[in-house]
Automatic annotation (TrEMBL):
Transmembrane segments: none annotated. The lineage of its organism: Eukaryota, Metazoa, Ecdysozoa, Nematoda, Chromadorea. Pfam families: EGF_3, EGF_CA. Residues 46-84, 90-124 form the EGF-like domain. GO terms for molecular function: calcium ion binding. CDD domains: EGF_CA (cd00054). Gene3D superfamilies: Laminin (2.10.25.10). This is EGF-like domain-containing protein. It comes from Pristionchus entomophagus. The keyword rRNA processing does not apply. Keywords: Disulfide bond, EGF-like domain, Glycoprotein, Repeat, Signal.
Amino acid sequence: FSDDDECDMGTDNCDRDTQDCINLPGHFNCTCKAGFEHGSDGKCKDIDECALAIDNCHALAICKNEQPLFSCHCKEPYIGDDWVTIIIVDVDECKLSPPPCNPNANCKNTEGSFECACKDGYKG
C-alpha cells in the first residue's frame, strides 16, 4: 500500500497562511501555525497575545498584536531593540543639545525624565 502525500502534492485543503499540513498514513491533518488557534468555525484565527497578556514585553514597552505573533515597542522616552527580548535604556535628557535646563541650573537625569535644580545663588 502506498500513501499519497497530500501535503506535498497540494491536494490538501489546509490554509497555507494559517495552517501546517501534516501527512498521515491514508490522510492528512491541518494544524494551526504558531500564533493561531482553532476558532469556533474550525478555521485558525490569530491569537491576540497582547489582549490575553501572554506577551513577554518589558513593563516599559507597549505590546502590538501582529499576525501571527506580536511585537514590543518602547514607551517614550525609552529606546530598545523593539522586540520580544526588549532592552530598555533610559534616555539621558541632560545630554541633549540644547540641554533641557536653564544654563543657571544643573540637570539631573532620572528614570524616564530629568530634574532641573538652580545653581548656587539662583532661584527659580
